[in-house]
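The protein record quoted for completeness.
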Amino acid sequence: MSAIDDETVGSAYGRAQVRELIAAMTLEEKLAQLVGLWQGVDREGGAVAPLQDAMDTVEQSFADFAAHGLGQITRHYGTRPLDPREGRATLTAKQRWLKENTRLGIPAIVHEECLTGLAAWKAATYPVPPAWGATFDPPLVERMAARIGRTMAGLGIHQGLAPVLDVIRDMRWGRVEECISEDPYHVAVTGAAYVRGLQSAGIIATLKHFVGYSDSRAGRNLAPVHAGTREVRDVLEFPFEVAVRDAGARSVMNSYAEIDGVPVAASAEHLTGTLREEWGFDGTVVADYFAVAFLQTLHRVAEDGGDAAAQAITAGIDVELPTGVTYLQPLKERIEDGRLGMDVVDRALERVLRQKAELGLLDAQWSPDPAPGHANGVSTGDVSADDVDTEEDRTLAATLAERSLVLLRNDGVLPLGATRPAPGRIAVIGPNAQSLSAMFGCYSFINHVLPHHPDRDTGLGVETVEAALRREFAAADIVTERGTGVDDGATDGIPAAATAAAGADVAVVVVGDRSGLFGRGTSGEGCDADDLELPGAQRALVEAVIATGTPTVVVLLTGRGYALGWLLDAAAAVVQAFFPGEEGAAAIAGVLSGRVNPSGRMPMSLPRGAGAQPYSYLHPPLGAASSVTNIATEPPVRYGFGLSYTRFGYEDFTVDAETVDVADAIRCAVTVRNTGDREGAEVVQLYASDPVASVTRPLAQLVAFARVPLGPGESARVHFTVPTRLLAFTDRDGVRIVEPGDVGVSVRRDAGDVILEHTVRLTGEVHIVTGAEPRISTVDIS
């Protein structure tokens, strides 16, 4: 029976009660609350976490491992194909066992991956984060996250390991597909929306990966980071700050990175100084999988597991995941021999127990069987283990996919049949035309786990692009040829593909990536690139099809941006799709037919080439093209770019005041008009520049945006209020400030295409940022 059954326990379980509980706990019971348990891992099929094979230990039974209690259950649904109803029953049994068979009767927090939807068999799977970024539609992302959260809550899950708030810095990095954008403001606003949505369902959002992970040397996964203080503070940390301070994120996961020689997992500067003391974060910090042990095995800053555990928990990591490699026996020995004080353990434990109290897990009346339609203290609506991929999920996934597609080039061939007779014969060519997995990213269950279980189907009703085109163009004769594989380099199928294209009215070539893990794909965690050409022989395939003279539409199903300058000059049309999820194929077919008017904008710059990486549009003057180097850096497609089947014009750009106090806000407005003949949505982008500053500054930076749907001839007035905090930077003394002086404010079609601009003067003394200032621009559309 539970020992926590007195009248003080409940949803109002406070700090005093938590401390009383801690005082009554044995050392073994304390440490048990600071670790996870990962069961059911396939040790033969291949790793789903870095160096998992090196970290695996003999799997204990649940009862043996959790005899003193348990902090977290790791990926109950996301480790192997498990029917949701069966999974709910076995999870309930585990929680009931903890309640009834441990001295304290404290249930575990259950966590799962949920970057593109709950990573579980049969669960709805949405587009990847670059697609969220391409929509420039944070409210839509918030709706998606809320839906994901309700599904998770209905299955007894408490914590989601998402969103990823790493800022894209190098297109060679395999995890670009998990990131929202190369712009920190864009990442911040979109990521905060995800956090609000997920947590509205009572699910703890976990920010990943704090901090610096995406800035690794040469775009290699889990490589050293040598970013300066200014880059870390002003670029890489900003999305995390917004997610903590503005969206109220309740958990943070450390980065695997080492920044200038110090592993983040052992950095009190970041995990305590910045996160807690500066930003006021009071949730839990959880370790990325095996990150604590890596302090010994990879970073070599710890002599053994106990030393690694002591460094991590002292720095601020509260919970070791995915299982108790160092926080159990090795940490226990450190405490018992006096090398680590109990106060450090109690600090982490208090945070963990307070979070469990917030979830209601310390309530005397808590039951592993929640009332129908309710879990984690909130309504889950119609979500149950019977249906984790509902019509509502499908509709939302379709909307996200449609709004995420970016039209990069169009010589008039698209939409098919709009300006010429509808094509009678369409050649559908390429390795991704008939691939279901090409719809999904590496953290989807389909690509993350199912490859290790080839006997199981996807559990989802998913169309290929070819199947969707057959439905969309039912009257057309559609012929197919694969041509080549994604990365096998085979060229023997290219002649047949060219022949099929030559006999068609239009050719649709579907190329790109295969998402996977640790070298099993061309994109994804541990799938980095040493060049940025399309993988394998895909460029040769595309060029052979184009050479036939048949109008060629190229559809890119990728997780990163590739060097495509050659393609943009040669193809009739190019559509960029970042792994668009379970409804992605229909969205692509809709854009090609014109049923969907493309409105996506690039969340990243397409690279000039691997030699121009790392690259960001947020570069200072010295990062631009120059006569003193022969390496061109200007991207063939800039951040924020995207075409439409209609046209938009801008007029009457005004500022409320030409002088603004350095600690206030810039208020401006512009009118956008649909000057074409069909409905569409424009992404209005507002940028700022600081022409003279005490440290070098980007030539331009995004400070606000708005997605504005308009009918033919309609217009809207878009009002922006931009806090001067968005112009802050770390000065030469390491202090975050806003300087007085002239600021350029401009409306642009993309990061480099200026339409209208004004100059505003910031007046007053240098403003030292306190943290109380607004960090997000407000937008009003009338």
The CA atoms of residues 234 and 729 lie 6 Å apart. DSSP finds 22 helices and 29 strands in the chain. The first strand starts at residue 36 and ends at 37.
